[in-house]
Amino acid sequence: MKSVLIISIILVSFAYSQCDANGDGDLDVLDVVIEVECILTDCWETDTTATPFEMVTVLAGDYTWGSEDEIRTISYDYEIMKYEVTNTQYVSYLEEALLSGDITVSSSTAQGYYAGDENYSAGEYEYLDLDDTDCRIIWDGASFSVIEGYGNHPVVEVTWFGAHAFAEYYGLRLPSEYEWEKAARGMTGADYPWGEDYGDDISDNANYGNSGDPYEVGDWAEYPQTTPIGYFNGENGTTDSPSPYGAYDMAGNVWNWTHSWWSETSSSRVFRGGSWYGNTDILQSWNRRSGSP
Question: pTM for the complete prediction?
Fold first, then answer.
């Protein structure tokens, strides 16, 4: 599977007072694992004043889940980044992590330490595939830079470990897929964050394969491109297309990693949202995909 994946990062602003830690409507062993992990890392009690990103607030309450629009509830407020993480933002992290010794780099990959979980042992893991032609970040042997013109485009070729490390560095965490879906569609029951459904013309709402945006080059299947973050904001001939809570690019542009496992027995992580090279069906807010971290 081609690993053109990015980071969607979420910040919960206070400790859970509920037992349903992942918001899936069930009380099970996954909730216990999340609670224990967050007790150890203090991930529910982050100082939001230090967050260097623009965030939007997702209020506690009901939301529609899945293709059948099941009503579920997340009973706490939380924040999610308004925009996807850019190449420039990820380079800033890499430079600081390199200086502190948290990552090592070769010509083809940046990697760092992961403390381990129930499926993966502690050790060094790849964070970023520098060797892939889709990657817009360059390593010259001494420092990182971004290919000119792509600083404000979302970062790609980031593994789950690289997304997790970025979030942790800034005192944040990746969202569960339940938090992601609530942030993407709220109680609308719509297929897409801005309220439309599959089959509608969404070429002015999102970046997907053959969407006709000005960043496509030639045949989309061979030369697709990302668009700058928040491009579909009502300017440049687009329609303003945020989620109900004000987050952009939650459909298309680049996939979003989540903290969730595909299932209780799986070692794959869930990613959401679709990408620039996919069709409109995979952009639907309830569409689940998974891959190796």
Answer: 0.85
